[in-house]
Description:
Mean pLDDT: 95
Bound molecules: pyridoxal-5'-phosphate
Low-confidence stretches: none
Radius of gyration: 27 Å
Number of strands: 17
CATH architecture of the largest domain: 3-Layer(aba) Sandwich
Strand content: 15-25%
Helix content: 25-40%
Largest sheet: 7 strands, mixed
Amino acid sequence: MTADPSADPRRRVPRTDTLLAEPQVAAAAGRLGRELVKTAVQTVQTRVRSGDLPPEDAVAAVLAALPGTAGSLQPVLNATGVLVHTNLGRAPLSAAAVEAVVAASGTTDVELDLATGRRGPRGEAALSALLAAVPAAEAALVVNNCAAALALVATCFCAGRELVIARGELVEIGDGFRIPELLTATGARLREVGTTNRVALADYTAALTPDTGAVLKVHPSNFVVRGFTRAVEVAELAPALAGTGVPLVADVGSGLLRPHPLLPDEPDLQTALADGADLVLASGDKLFGGPQAGLVLGRADLVQRLRRSPLYRALRVDKTTLAALEATLRGPQPPVHQMLDADPDMLRKRARALAARLVDGGLDAVAVASTARVGGGGAPEFELPSCAVSLPAAFAEPLRRGPRPVVGHLAGDRTLLDLRSLLPAQDDALADAVLAVAQRWT
Ligand SMILES: *Cc1c(COP(=O)(O)O)cnc(C)c1O
């Protein structure tokens, strides 16, 4: 008796055309593009050929192998307790900002006045929202990020000239990004004043020459110098520069609009301008709580010079960033601020409720007190009281690699899932993600 060749599943590998013609697969190809779907088809054919998958399960396997979107960036639940986590994309956008981004994604009136049919100023609504939020500013400009704002300022005011900066403010932000290297790359010559730990007003004034293009103050965002120290603040520096014609530029880093009661050491845009800075620079995606952007606010004549610079065109932002920025300013409190202001009692309740759900699911989970941080180079020493769900340390990797990735942080032999870097509306997704990982595992 000879074996029936059709009984061998490897002989019955479904053809590419057949699989692609399946209605659900064809619909996916319309949504994700044919190439991504074809890759999934080929992976599944290989599995059938090797006898690993019955041919009749091929269509379901193709659908299961498809990515959720045509892009490969995945949403991640940030349970690190670091509110602004650079590796996780910094500030999450508010729902209002996400809606504005979606609305602006197609063709939009970013540079057209619909009333007259003529060209209009680009992103005017976002700029006026910025000016409404920072009344001390006469004018505003938005570029790609704060590094771009620094590059634009240094190029415009200091190329071939001197930029005066305190030695204690030659900051490395992270991942090897050093502000002094960025500044000199523009052709500005740094005129360093003071020492690592101390600088006096006289150091600044003695450094001024006809060749001085600007004086720059940089907020030492991610470190603190303690002991025998002295810095010169904007309020002290501004009167000494008044009348010299040298602009005073303050890079405040994390982009608070106004002072925050919890973060007294964090500079803000409104105060820096009210104290006499001619221009202030900040990131859009740190404590400001919006999209990646570099915010430039201050004197109208200086902002106009930056806008006229040929470099500005290379650094300007797109319509979706402008949309997100405006909605962050005009819409409800952005997520980073909700997290910053979260009530510790609420955090405890959330942690207990989550731990109880996980214990019901058979896990070794317990609510514990924890410590959260601002992150993103803001308020480096500031600890926010928080609560976390503690799980065995072995959960860290499977949680990160699960279908809905969760990033926590390790503390000894436990993985802590901190609730301050998540919004209450994300708690269900967190519980589901942990339970799904536990189920796969056991
Ligand atoms: C974070 C930071 C920057 C860099 O900002 P990006 O928006 O990431 O370019 C520059 N200056 C200071 C003081 C910062 O804290």
